[in-house]
Amino acid sequence: MSKPAFHAEYACSEGCGFRAPLLEVVYRCPRCQGLLEVAHDVEALRSVPAEEWRRRFEQRFGSSRLPYASGVWGKHEWVLPELPVEDMVSLGEGRVPLKPLPRMAAELGLASLDLKECGVSPTGSFKDWGMTVLVSSVKHMRARGVPIRAVACASTGDTSAALSAYCAAAGIPSVVFLPKDKVSLSQLVQPVANGARVLSLDTDFDGCMKLVQQVTQDSGLYLANSMNSLRIEGQKVVAIELCQDLGWEPPDWVVIPGGNLGNASALGKGFELMLALGVISKRPRIAVAQAQRANPLMRAFRGGFKELLPMQAERTLASAIQIGNPVSFRRAVRILKSFDGVVEEATESELANAAARADREGTFTCPHTGVALAALEKLVAQGVIARGARVAVVSTAHGLKFPDFKVGYHRGALADVTSRYSNPPVDLPAELGAVRNALADL
Ligand SMILES: *Cc1c(COP(=O)(O)O)cnc(C)c1O
Ligand SMILES: [Zn+2]
Q: Domain Tryptophan synthase beta chain-like PALP, which positions (predicted)?
C-alpha cells in the first residue's frame, strides 16, 4: 500500500500564525503565549474518502498486533501520521467498551444512554489515550538526538500513573509531582511501582503545576501536562471511537467531566476532524460537568464566558478535577461555543449518588464520572437535554482506583454525602438459619 503524504505540525491555537515541527521541544506559542495544537494537513486526509476511513478503522479494530492493537494507533494517520511504528509506545490503550445504561436511560426518558468506559485501560484512566502519544513522541525525539533526559508532570493522580507506566515501558526516566494526601492510595502507588521519581509536595495540583512548569523550563526535562498538545491528539480518539461504536451516528449529547479541560477540548477536536473529513455529518452537543467545589468553568459559563477567574479549588471527592485554574480554559470555551455546549456542576452528594446509581447497572464508576452523570440528571430535569435524546457519557477512570470513595459511600461514611443506594455487607454468624433469614426476601 503506498502511503499518501500526511503531515502534522504545531500551530498556535490562538491563530497568530506560529508553526513549528513536531520534533521541537515547545509547549506554548513563543509569540503570543497561546497553547499550541497539532495541526493536520486536512486536505491530504480528505484525499481518502470518508467511506474508506470508516472501513479502515473498522478493519483495524480486530487486530491484535501493533500498531493497530492500540485503539489510538489504529487511527495513526489522524494522530501523528509521521511517527514511525518502531517509536510507538503502547500498552494496548483504547478500544474500550461502550456500556449501555438502559435502566437509567428509561428512568430519565432518554432514547439511549451509553458510557464510554475510557478507564478500562492499562493504568485505569483515559490519560493513557494521550500519554501513549506523548511518550511515543519523546521516544522519537530522543532517537533523533533531541536531548531529553526525563519526562515530568504535575498530576491529580491519573496523569502521573499513565506517564510513569508508558515511560517505564519505553525505558525513559519519569518524574511526577503529586499534591500530598490529595490523590488516592492506588494512584500514589502506581508511579511508585513503575519506577518514577515521585515527589509528594505539600500543596495542591495548581501548586504542583507551577513548580513543574518552572523546572521544565531549562534542562532536558520534558513537560507532559495537558498544555502539551500531543496528549490532546490521543485523547481526541475517544470521540472517534465513540462514533465508530455508534455506527458513525454521533449522539445528540456527550457529557464529560472537566478539570484542566484538556479532555473536553480533545473531544471537540476529534468531532471537528470527523466533520471536516465527512466521516460524520451531525454535530453533537457537549456538556462539561464540574464539581461544585472546583467550578471555574461553571462560573465563567454563568458569566457568558467573558473571563476565567482562577479560584482556590476546594477538596472534593472528584479529586482528579480539583483544579481552580484550568490550563485549557480558552480552548475548552472555543469548543463549547462551536458545539452549542453547556456547563453543569454537581455537589458531593449528587456526584456520589449518580455514580452509585450507574454502578447498579453493572459498571464501576469513578467520582468524576459521577460528576458527569449527576450533571446529566440535572440537565434532563431542566429540559436542556430533551427527553428522547441519545446521550453518551465519557467515563474517565475505573472505579477500582477509588476504593475509599466506594467503600465510604456504601458505609454511609462520606462527608456531605447522603447515600441513597448504600448497600453495605451483612454481618452474620455462619449459621444456615441466619443465612436463610437474610435471603428471605429475594
Ligand atoms: C484528568 C481527569 C479528568 C479531567 O480531565 P481534564 O482534561 O483535566 O479536564 C477527569 N476524570 C479523571 C478520572 C481524570 O483523571
Ligand atoms: Zn501565537
A: 89-396
Q: What is the largest CA-CA distance in the chain?
A: 77
Q: With a 6 A CB cut-off, is 225 part of the ligand 1 pocket?
A: no
- In Å, what is the CA distance from 94 to each residue of 31, 75, 102, 129, 249? 35, 11, 23, 6, 19
> Does 324 sit in the ligand 1 pocket, CB within 6 Å?
no
Q: What's 376's domain CATH number?
A: 3.40.50.1100
Ligand 1 near 128 CB (within 6 A): no
Domain span including residue 270? 98-123+232-411
Ligand nearest to the CA of 26: 2
pLDDT given for residue 4 in this prediction: 60
Distance CA 253, CA 116 (A): 13
Is 202 contained in some domain? Answer: no
Query: Does ligand 1 lie within 6 Å of residue 263's CB atom?
Result: yes
Q: Is residue 27 part of a domain?
A: no
Per-residue pLDDT at 2: 53
Residues (pLDDT < 70) of the chain are 1-4
Q: How far is the CA of 305 from the centre of ligand 1 (A)?
A: 21
Q: Which ligand is nearest to the CA of 126?
A: 1
Q: What is the 3-state secondary structure (H, E, C) of 86-141?
A: HHCCCCCCCCCCEEECHHHHHHHCCCEEEEEECCCCCCCECHHHHHHHHHHHHHHH
Grid coordinates representing 304?
A: 457568558
The pLDDT tens digits of the residues spanning 423-434 come to: 999 999 999 999
Q: What is the rounded distance in angstroms from the CA atom of residue 91 to the CA atom of residue 164?
A: 12
Question: Are the C-beta atoms of 404 and 415 separated by less than 8 Å?
Answer: no
pLDDT at 65: 87
Provide the pairing of β-strand 342-346 with 285-291.
Answer: parallel
pLDDT at residue 182, rounded to an integer: 86
Residue pair 15/9 in contact by the 8 Å Cβ criterion: no
Give me the number of domains the chain comprises. Answer: 1
172 occurs within a structural domain: no
Alpha-carbon torsion (252, 258, 261, 267), positive or negative: negative
261 Cβ closer than 6 Å to some ligand 1 atom: yes
> Would you state the pLDDT for residue 184?
87
